[in-house]
Every structure is written in C-alpha cells, then in structure tokens.
Amino acid sequence: MLYQAIVVALVVFLTVGGQELLGFTQLGRPIVIGPIVGLLLGDVQTGLLLGASLETIFMGVVNIGGAMAAEPGLASALAVAFAINMHGGLGVALPIAIPLGIIGVEVKTLIYVLVVGPFAGVFDRLAAAGKQRKYTGLHFGLWTLQWFLYSLIPFFAILFGSTATQNVINMIPASIINGLSVAGNLLPAVGMAMLMKILWENNISVYYFLGFLIVAYFKVPLIAVAVMAIVIGVVSAQNDYRMHKIEKKADERPVAAASSTGQTNIETTDELENDDFFS
Amino acid sequence: MADKNDLTSREKKLLRQMYWRSFTLYSAVTPAKQGASGFEYTMLPFINEFYDDEEEKKQAMVRHNSYFNSNLALVPFIMGVTASMEKENSQTKDFNTDSINAIKTSLMGPLAGIGDSVFWGVLKAIAAGVAIGLAKSGNILAPIVFLLIFNVPVQLIRWYSGKMGYTLGSTYISQLYENGLINILTKAASTIGLMMVGAMTSQMVTLKVKWNMVVAGKKVLETQSVLDQVFIGLLPLLITLGCFYLIKKKNVSLNTLIFAIIIISVLASLAGIV
Fold this sequence. Notes:
Number of domains of chain A: 2
Low-confidence stretches of chain B: 1-5
Strand content of chain B: under 5%
Strand order of the largest sheet of chain B: 1-2
Order of helices and strands of chain A: HHHHHHHHHHHH
Oligomer: heterodimer
Shape of chain A: flat
Structural class of chain B: mainly alpha
Distance between the termini of chain A: 58 Å
Number of helices of chain B: 11
Shape of chain B: elongated
Number of strands of chain B: 2
Radius of gyration of chain B: 26 Å
Mean pLDDT of chain B: 85
Number of strands of chain A: 0
Structural class of chain A: mainly alpha
Largest sheet of chain B: 2 strands, antiparallel
Largest interface: A-B, 115 and 116 residues
Low-confidence stretches of chain A: 259-279
C-alpha cells in the first residue's frame, strides 16, 4: 500500500502540478492520468476506461487562472487506484471520484489562498528592490511547495483510505450500485452542458443538433464528425466574410465620398491582407 | 506581414526564452495578482537586455509585477507586444510607460475570451473526443493522441504568435477587432465546437429505460424501443439540454447538478425504472 501511495502521489505531483509548470499542456486531465496510474499499478485497461469516463464527465471543467469547479486530476488518480484495488469496481469508482474532485478543488483553493496568497506582498517587495534571482526563486519555490502539499492528499488517502472505502462499498446494495452506474453514464451530460455554455449562440445552435443526429443515426466516428464540422466552419466563415465585405462597402461609400481618398486606399490594402489570412 | 528576418540573433534568443518561460505563467498564482510572477519571470530577459540602468530595471520589474490573467495559448502574443513596447521605451525618451500596462490589460480580456472558447471549447473537445473513443476500445495510445492533437496546434500558436506580437506590435490585433474579423473567426470556431459537442452528447450520454408496461403478465409497451422509434437518444438529449438550461439560465452550480444526477439515478434505480 505504501508503494501505491507513493506512486499515486508522485503522479499527481508531476501531472496536476506539472501542468502549472508546463502551462496549458493538459497533462493533468483524466484521460492522461488514468492510464499512467493504471500502468504503474499494473492494470492499464482499468486506467484507460476510467480515464475516458472521467474525461467525459469533467469535459467542461476548465481551469482558467486558478478558478475551477472541480479538480479532475486528483479524482482520476484516486478513482483508478481504488478501482484497481477493488478489482473492477468501474461503476463504483466513478461516484467515488466525483466527491474527491470537489474535495480536491477545495484543498487547492485553500492552499491558493492561505499558502501562496500571502506571498503576493513578498513578490511586490522583491520587484521594487530589483532582486531578480530571489523573485525567480520564489516563483518556482511556491510551485514546489503548493504541489507538494497537494500531493499529500492522495498519499494519505491511498495509505489509509483503501480498506475503509472497500468496506463501505461491500455494504452497498446492488440496486444502488446499478443506480450509480446509471449516473456514471448520465454525468457526461453535465460536462457537455458546461461546454455548451462556452459555445452556444442561438444562430448557430442548429449545428449542435446536426452533430447529435449524425452520431445517433449514422454512428459516424468522432474524428469524421470533426472533419465535417471543420468543413462547415470554413464554408460559413467564407460566407460571413463575403457578407462582411459587402456590408462594409455599403457602409463606407458615403464616408469615403466625404473624406479623403487616402482612407479607401488603406481599406483596400487591409482587405488584401485579410484575403491572405483566409487562403 | 512584417519581415521576420529583421530580428537580430540576440532577439531571436530572447523570443526563445519567452516561449519557454511563458509556460510557467501560473506556477505561483496568487489570488490578488494571478499570473503576475510568471509574467515577470518571462519579461526578465527582455528587461535585462533593454535597460542598463538599475533604476530603470527596477521600474520595469514593478511594472510587470501587476495583475495578469489570460489564455495561456495566446499569452505569448501579449508578451511579445509588451516586450516590443519595453524595447521602444528603452530607446525613446518621452515614452509613456503607462501605455505598456494599458495595452497588456486591454489585450488580456478579449484574447482570454477567444482563447478559452477556441482552445478549451473546440480543440480540447476534439482531442478528448477522439482519445476517449480510443481509450474505450482499450487503445493504449489514447493519452498520447490526446496530448498530440491538443499540443501540436497550441505550441505552434504559442511560438508564432509570440514572434508576431513582438514584430507587429499591438496595432495588428486592434485591426482585426475593428474589421470585425474576430467575430467571424469566433463564430466559425464555435460552430465547429458546437457540432462536436452535439456528436459527443450522442456518443457519451447514455440511458436505457428498463421499465415496461405489463398487462396480465405480458409486455404491452417496451418503453426504450418506443423512445428509439421517436428519436434515437431522445432522453439523453433532453437531459443534456436540461443541464445546459439550468447552468446557463438558472446559474445552478456544477456540483449541485452532479449530485442531483447521482441522487435521481439511484432513486430511479431503486424504483426499477432504469
């Protein structure tokens, strides 16, 4: 159990923490962490499947500037470890993971506010004094400190939590476990809804239904849908651009007549540049 | 496009450093100033290159130790613009240094908006969608495919937009805005993203109704097959749209929704519906 605890803590440190050092590389996503933990604990398949399921559920959870609704990385690492310990508790592992994700984000916020937060003043002083080396040291030091603290959660959770969780799960009746796996299949709806919140505009909402229909009735793989979507996106951008040019000409005419001809010249060079941009 | 060859080899080295250092933007995020320390760390090579006077260096350090928050894929562009302004400041006497932070601030909001919808909403969704399909069929390459689909475009954009920001300065992006081209690009990206999300909804949100109407020991209504005849995946679609409605219009939090779904599923299972 100590080996597992160390491995999982290390994976969390290097991926969830690592993605803050190697920003925006998506290292800390469930689809990456799941298989890694699975591989290290000797069951890649469980890791892959759980990673995929958790990735769908947490699809819409995006971490923008430290503010997020859940921390999928910790949840995935622990869910995979527990599932492997309990030998194939896939349906059960999902609902365990979700509260863990929420606890994870609470702890992360706590560290963020109480441990890193107070150093804002130190950064100010070092900048004012021009102490570059110390400033850089603090920049990386705080990274190490906060993710070390964060990795202690999976360490102790695995060390002490595995047997306790197993005992609790053995007591749960079958119909509740069935309900939990049903929930596991429905929860991606929340992730999708979060993405729709980012993307939805009424005038393009039909494309959501088009995407749904293509997969529901024709069972097209996602990569093919992606290519179709890109074709549609390019065509509609070309149309919009044409419309935009026409509208602009209509708007410009009275203005151009009133002002100097120099302005229209600038306009045309702009358009040439934009043509480049699209070709 | 401006000629990229007019960069000195010294400047090319600085831009390389910018690319690598900007990875750490959020390494020490503080509630008050977000990515300030990462931005400062990235600017240090430029500050040391452009200024000789210790006092000027200190002033520049204070300048960049200010609130910064944007989308990581497009941050190098802002850094490039900022660096080019620092260079101008070091060469011009009456340069208004307030304009440096003003440009930074004016760029970070809009770029975060586009970046988040393009990279989180579209690219990340496509990468995850493809990788999830692979992972479910047991393909061990899933995480690698995921990282490649996401990172190859992002790293190219990070590298070239940084260079672009430095050579073209701040005029270019404001031109894109004034032309209204940004809106066209955002709309096209959102279209792609939305269609992918629709496809993923169909593939990933699943529900089978077990309850059937039974009269005198005979099944008279097989609920699931009737539902499928109406429209395949009708219930998952409605549930997803319901979640979207609650999040968008009612501001229901993610965690509330997750727990509500778990509780309702368990109750429905106990009642024998699913």
